[in-house]
Amino acid sequence: MRLDLARCRRRFESCLIARLGTIDAAGRPQLVPVTFTMVGESVYLVIDQKPKSTRQLARLRNIRRHPAVSLLVDHYEPDWSRLWWVRVDGTARIEAEPAVMATPLRALAAKYPQYLADPPAGPVIRIDVEHWSGWSAS
């Protein structure tokens, strides 16, 4: 069953993790799990202090080259009548100005208490949502 916009948004915002899809320089899709929040009609992600192999992340390079992205959240359980997914498609941009990052960082800290103890330095990725889609088995 196709989900309407209100149900898509409600389910999306209730999730703690999404998969961010970007396109690399060779045109191949890349997925990475991310934390996120919504402020208004935009989705925000942050580059945080969790261990990474480098601070020059592929997702940042990919967004600079190809700003079209997708985010996917989903629910799975053995009872397949309860399956669902929601996808957001949009255009991403990287924000590093402290004044621009302040509101999304507060919203992320409200959703993820870990960020209160260890505030992320950023940058922030802003995704301006252009399309919602979703499906539910029931």
UniProtKB/TrEMBL annotation:
InterPro entries: F420-dep_enz_PPOX_Rv0121, F420H2_bilvrd_red/Heme_oxyg, Pyridox_Oxase_N, Split_barrel_FMN-bd. One of its GO terms (molecular function) is coenzyme F420 binding. Transmembrane segments: none annotated. The lineage of its organism: Bacteria, Bacillati, Actinomycetota, Actinomycetes, Pseudonocardiales. This is Pyridoxamine 5'-phosphate oxidase. Keywords: Oxidoreductase. It comes from the Bacteria. NCBIfam families: Rv0121_F420. Residues 8-135 form the Pyridoxamine 5'-phosphate oxidase N-terminal domain. PANTHER family: F420H(2)-DEPENDENT REDUCTASE RV1155 (PTHR35176:SF2), HEME OXYGENASE HI_0854-RELATED (PTHR35176). GO terms for cellular component: cytosol.
